[in-house]
Amino acid sequence: MIDQAWQRHKAELRHWLLSRLGNAADADDLLQDVFERAMRQGECFGDINNARAWLFRVARNALVDHLRLDRSHIALDDHIVAEEPEVDAIDTLSVCIPRVLSELSDEDRQIITLCDLDGMTQQQFAILMNISVAAAKSRLQRARKRMRQQLECACQVRLNDAGNVCCFVPRPPLK
């Protein structure tokens, strides 16, 4: 049963694969894969109502798998330059932060380090410093404002229309 269906449709399958691949060796390889899959069906192949449709479906699936795997091996011209991955400015801004932090007052550096960098809550900071929560919030807001001004001045941080960091000039760390 398999042999008869194969002999009847092999040439048509090969022509179909060749027209899509444009390479006789690849078409023959896929044709062999289709035949192997048909052979694995064994006696069940006789239960298939339309052998031609089944063979073409298997060939189409084999072709899709082949193209999916082959896509990663497309040759590029030598003159094409690889693009550098675009890095978000806010991610690279961390280069400026240690230096700017070191230039802040001890009080500003302490609250920013504890609350913004180490994750301490403003309430915990208020308890630690023996001040009210409102005073801790005000102190943190003022420290953030001074840090922002220092970043804008020292690292030339610029914001886009949405208020997000778009660019800056990194400063070398202190030695």
Written description of the protein model:
By secondary structure, the chain is mainly alpha-helical. 63% of the residues lie in helices and 3% in strands. The chain contains eight helices and two strands, in the order ααααααααββ. It has helices at residues 2-21, 24-41, 51-70, 89-92, 97-103, 106-117, 122-129, 133-154; strands spanning 158-159, 165-167. A two-stranded antiparallel ribbon has the order 1-2. Strand 1 (158-159) and strand 2 (165-167) form a beta hairpin. Helix 2 packs across helix 3 and helix 5 (97-103) packs across helix 8 (133-154). The longest helix is centred in the last third of the chain and has 22 residues, at 133-154. The radius of gyration is 34 Å and the shape is elongated. The mean pLDDT is 80.
For this entry, give a set of tags.
175 residues; mainly alpha; two-stranded antiparallel sheet; single chain; 3% strand
